């Protein structure tokens, strides 16, 4: 029985909380710019990160890349053939057509004709989306991490963390007991 309990605790360790019921630092996940700096995937999972990245890409005249990637992500969640056809056509006309208002630069874009829009499927843009993701990951993402937009946001986060209001109950308690 003891071995079974040990095995269970090994597989499912109990949540360790601080005095306020928040996970302890060993269980906390990275937030904000720290999380964004770990990977492009992490950046794109955070709405604030996407906002800042878009702001940066706009200055580089390549905001259409992240907008296309986001549109493809949204497209994958679309239900119903009619809605998929409408969204597929919108993505095609906005980002892929030769007359697109925010055309992305992808290989094989000419092979994706309007006829494919009649029989849409959730992953129909996947190959093109992957190209754009890799373009962002290996090109603009690294520049973003060195940009004023990122660095200023990081600095303001650090100032917030170091402000008196941001002190945790544990820090306040340690001051009380150590006087």
UniProtKB/TrEMBL annotation:
InterPro entries given in the database record: RGS, RGS10/12/14-like, RGS10_RGS, RGS_sf, RGS_subdom1/3, RGS_subdomain_2
GO terms (BP aspect): regulation of G protein-coupled receptor signaling pathway
Entry keywords, A to Z: GTPase activation, Signal
Record keyword Mitochondrion present: no
Top-level taxon: Eukaryota
PROSITE patterns recorded: RGS (PS50132)
Gene Ontology CC entries for this record: cytoplasm; nucleus; plasma membrane
Domain named RGS: residues: 39-150
MF-aspect GO terms: G-protein alpha-subunit binding; GTPase activator activity
Record region (Disordered): 155-179
Pfam families: RGS
N-terminal signal peptide: 1-19
Name used for this protein in its record: RGS10 protein
Naturally occurring in which organism (per UniProt): Acrocephalus arundinaceus
Gene (name only): Rgs10
